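Structure ticket #2291
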Amino acid sequence: MIERLLVTNHRGAQVPAVLGLALAGAGAISAAAVAFLVSDPVPAEGWIASGAALLVVAAGLVDDLAPPGPRGLRGHARALLHMHVGSGVVKVVVIVGASAIAVGVVPLRTALARWAGILLVAASANLWNGLDVRPARALKFFYPAALAVIATSPLLVPFGPGVVLGAVLVLPWDAGERAMLGDAGANLLGFTAGLCLFHQLHGSAVVVAAVVAVTLNVLAETVTLSRVIDAIAPLRWYDRLGTRERPRPGPG
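Resolution: structure written out below.
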């Protein structure tokens, strides 16, 4: 199985995309700890959110194990036009479904907030998948979003604290280019960040966050996130912080 999880990184070296399994394990341990150590019981929406996160991880892992196929939403759309349903298309469908389930069970939200929340969570999961193309990039851009995870009650997102802790622990392997998150890990980071943002935001703020997440996905599909990050000095500095210097592109 490990051999099937070997991927080629940006330097052309093969590394195992297994760090997502560590994040998933940390999330599962966190959910169990919250259930047994917190005096208040985990409500139904907390367990449903955990089950939805498990679906996201499973779909990402299947895509990691599958032979390389089309990448990005445009690539999947072109594949569908040719009647080819690959693991990437299945993953997108599962992520949207998991987002709808996790958002739909949150009480006291308007219909507009729920639709925006589904967009926010699904787009965030896909966005972090697009960030996992450079060492530690997905992790480092998750850390600011982790503030929303920390602020959210662990009863509502019991796997959240474990994902945050796991994201810190696996940083040396990702930054050192010894392993990668893979789709399983990157999608889990984005799903966790998006769901906790949904819990923290209310009213029009959810719509604004959803628009931002969708816009970033559009940039990833067109300009590419790497070009956006490299064009903005503070983001470029943060992106390269603690990682090896990247090779300069050759002439032409």
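Closing remark: The mean pLDDT is 90.
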